Amino acid sequence: MKRLNMRSDTQTLPTPGMRQAIFEAVLGDDTYGEDPTVKEFESLAAEMVGMEAALLVLSGNMGNLVALMAHGAPGDEVILDQDSHIFYYEVGGLANIAGLMPMPVRSHAGMLDPQEVAAAIRSPNLHYPTPRLLCLENTHNRSGGRVVPLDLHNELCAVARERGLSVHLDGARIFNAAQAAGAAVTDYTENVDSIQVCLTKGLGCPLGSFVAGSREFIERADRARKRLGGGMRQAGLIAAGGTYALRNHVDRLSEDHRRARTLATALNGMPGLSVDMATVESNMVYIDHTGLGMSTGEFTAALKEAGVIVSTRPPHHVRMCTSLEHDDATIEEVIDRVANIVQGAPACV
Ligand code: TLP
Predict the structure, then answer these.
(1) pTM
(2) Is-contact 194 71, C-beta < 8 A?
């Protein structure tokens, strides 16, 4: 039985074209600024997100951490969504490595409220940490890959600006967000100071992310990367995949979005399952399995038994992501296998 891996868009393997590009990469020691493939990648990446400069890093987690360290000094405060990846999934690096103070604000299905963000920014006072940075995320992972609309994004940036804060965008999937919003990535970066973009999600690279911002910001980010042990040598092996992905894997992301919608529509029609279709805006599908009478663990195990791998969002959801690993036939096969499980579920027999 073929294993259908829907766990995450991080599960992609490099395509033959990408492997060839990596194989042919001209290499040098990047710590000395002598890897031409890294240089080429960083200038293309900066150009594509409309920033002065970019820096290759090893992962999205590292990219966010490097950006946080470049923006703030220990003791400074960061306003961010309680459900953001930086707050929820990055091992507390914000506090325990960067030394920053998190001020979490609750988003509403992935959308921060500008008034609530404004209220969370404290006025200067000897007793308070200094508010330094607002972090945004787009697409928003824990809300089901929702796309923060450009108007709201710009309103949130304006709130930060008015109070003298910088803005960092966790744009792990910003190319998905921009395509789904019918906007340019540069529309989303116009009012932010820095962005982190993952190469390992829908773009299909085996590793790597980049941060981008002003030249001066990237100089600080470079030092932060080095402090974290992320200074690399013949990193063109990573960068070559990145350049290939930026040139070849961006336009196709809308196919992943179309397949996610097909998947979501079919699953939503099955007894015991429901999908909030309003949240299916990019390549993620959060499936509420409450009606099956199975725990998240039981449902995930039954799916695994049927060769469908998902990630868990307990107590009520599992997540499936579409990516370049999946064609239409894969999606149909996933739908068939889930339909079989549903037929035998305690609440449905
Ligand atoms: N997200 C992963 C898991 O960590 C949850 C996934 O499977 O979705 N920002 C956002 C918005 C992300 O979704 C992720 C990864 C990261 C940053 C971190 O990227 P990596 O995994 O490269 O460190």
Answers:
(1) 0.97
(2) yes
